[in-house]
Automatic annotation (TrEMBL):
The keyword Iron-sulfur does not apply. This is histidine kinase. Residues 279-485 form the Histidine kinase domain. Gene3D superfamilies: 1.10.287.130, 6.10.340.10, Histidine kinase-like ATPase, C-terminal domain. Its EC number is 2.7.13.3.
């Protein structure tokens, strides 16, 4: 698979993974919340309702027990329900009225051995042991000790519904002689289960809605990311001219702007590199042609025995080689990334050194160089600033007419130090004011066109600026630098 296709595949996999992760991030916490919260709420509601039902049934049992005469209850014997004794019928009528008034399903009375004495709503005859009491042994122990209680578990009746039992003791002369049991329906659990089903349904709907939102959000994120992906792949393939489109989303918009800045920087560097390569090729071609020409002539003269002519040809070849060496040195100086070695630098001393380095050339051209520098201390790389100032003074000296004057001044104002290099030459035409700072742009036959671009590059690296104003008879290069300390380790921009 081609590398571009593999890269596209990796990007698609990454975007698909983003969608899946967003989907999981939306759904899993919601699912856990619905499951845990729904179960907890259901169990809590059920527990509260069960406790409330038990309390209510035990209260009905207690109210019924207060109406039961313990001694008369114990007089009921097996068979009384068959013969219908008066005592048994009275208890039945009382229990039936309680059941009708309270809406419970069953009311019964048992002795301390668990044998039935009265059973309204049930089918057990008098004297029979109630098997249902076996499940509530602990509760009956408490009842027979004089407390009211309710069963801890629900049981299913013959009709398939859930029921619960409340108990209360029957006392006679300070002793517990039996217990009243009241069975009530837990019909509300049907509503609770319906509520639970409704909750589950709503949870499912919420999950579906969240899944839809997650998909929409994932697509909303994936689309701008896919556009950024396309732009990044386009830049990676070498297309540095197509701008990266802006994005409305804040975070992705920042990424788009940074990617566009990166593209612009790469395009500028690529354009500058091409310009530099073209400039080097152009500048190198002429001296190489001269070297080839003069070396050929030198060979012919030597073969012909014209040794007197050979010395002149050698000098010409040496001049062309020196020019080539200067081109290479200027090119390396401009292209090299050099971290700034900042240190306190006296501004007047800096200007004096730069002018001294150009004194010989100025004297050869009969040009005077004047210095007027106000005292100030710069936090700067002295060697780099010296190189920049030498280029400015050299340019002014070469532009000045014979017998002319170059003025170099420095003034401090508003936290900045301004250096001006002025000459009275013919000036720079307006269309060339900015082009003069482009690498390899020169109007001189033997100029490399790198001196002024290097000077501006050094100025920008120090947080300053280099500008030009020019008119016939008055051309000024203005170098503005900040006073005081500046962050160290700054690398000159390319």
């Amino acid at each position: 698979m081609p590398s571009g296709d593999r890269q596209n595949s990796r990007w698609r996999d990454a975007l698909g993974s983003l969608s899946a992760r967003l989907l999981v991030a939306f759904l899993v916490p919601t699912l856990l919340f619905v499951a845990v919260a729904g179960t907890a709420v259901y169990q809590l509601a059920r527990s509260i309702l069960e406790e409330e039902l038990g309390t209510s049934l035990s209260a009905i049992a207690a109210a019924t027990a207060t109406q039961v005469h313990g001694e008369r209850l114990l007089t009921i014997e097996p068979g009384d329900d068959v013969t219908g004794t008066r005592t048994w019928r009275n208890f039945v009528r009382m229990f039936e009225s309680v059941a009708e008034a309270s809406g419970v399903r069953r009311v019964y009375a048992v002795d301390t051995q668990g044998r039935v004495r009265v059973d309204v709503g049930g089918t057990l005859p008098v004297g029979t042991e109630m098997p249902e009491l076996a499940r509530d042994r602990l509760e009956l122990t408490r009842v027979f000790s004089g407390e009211r209680a309710a069963s801890q578990v629900l049981f299913t009746g013959s009709d398939g519904r859930l029921y619960k039992t409340g108990y209360a003791p029957i006392e006679y002369e300070g002793s517990v002689v039996g217990a009243v049991g009241v069975e009530g329906s837990a019909a509300f659990f049907g509503s609770l289960q319906q509520l639970s089903r409704t909750f589950v349904t709503m949870g499912a709907v919420a999950l579906g809605a969240l899944a839809f939102i997650a998909v929409v959000t994932a697509r909303g994120l994936a689309r701008p990311l896919r556009r950024l992906m396309v732009s990044a792949l386009r830049i990676g393939r070498g297309d540095l001219t197509t701008p990266v489109p802006p994005e409305p989303t804040l975070e992705i918009g920042v990424l788009a702007r940074e990617l566009e800045d990166m593209r612009g920087a790469l395009e500028s560097r690529d354009r500058q590199l091409k310009m530099m390569l073209a400039g080097v090729a152009h500048e190198v071609r002429n001296p190489i042609g001269g070297i080839a020409l003069f070396s050929g002539i030198l060979k012919e003269d030597l073969q012909a025995g014209a040794h007197d002519e050979a010395g002149a040809h050698v000098e010409r070849i040496q001049r062309e080689v020196a020019y080539l060496q200067r081109i290479v040195e200027d090119f390396l100086a401009f292209a090299r990334e050099q971290p700034l070695a900042r240190a306190p630098v006296e501004a007047p001393s800096l200007l004096s050194i730069a002018c001294e380095l150009m004194a010989a050339e100025a004297s050869a051209r009969d040009v005077a160089v004047d210095i007027d520098a106000a005292p100030a201390v710069l936090e700067a790389d002295g060697s780099l600033l010296t190189a920049a100032l030498v280029n400015l003074v050299k340019n002014a000296v070469q532009a000045s007419p014979q017998g002319g004057r170059v003025r170099v001044s420095g003034t401090a104002h508003g936290g900045q130090y301004t250096i001006q290099v002025r000459d009275a030459g013919p000036g720079v035409p307006a269309p060339e004011h900015e082009r003069i700072f482009e690498p390899f742009f020169t109007t001189r036959e033997k100029g490399t066109g790198l001196g002024l671009p290097l000077a501006r590059k050094i100025a920008l690296a120090h947080g300053g600026m280099l500008s030009l104003t020019s008119a016939p008879g008055d051309t000024r290069f203005t170098l503005t630098l900040p006073l005081g300390a500046a962050p160290s380790g700054v690398t000159p921009p390319r």
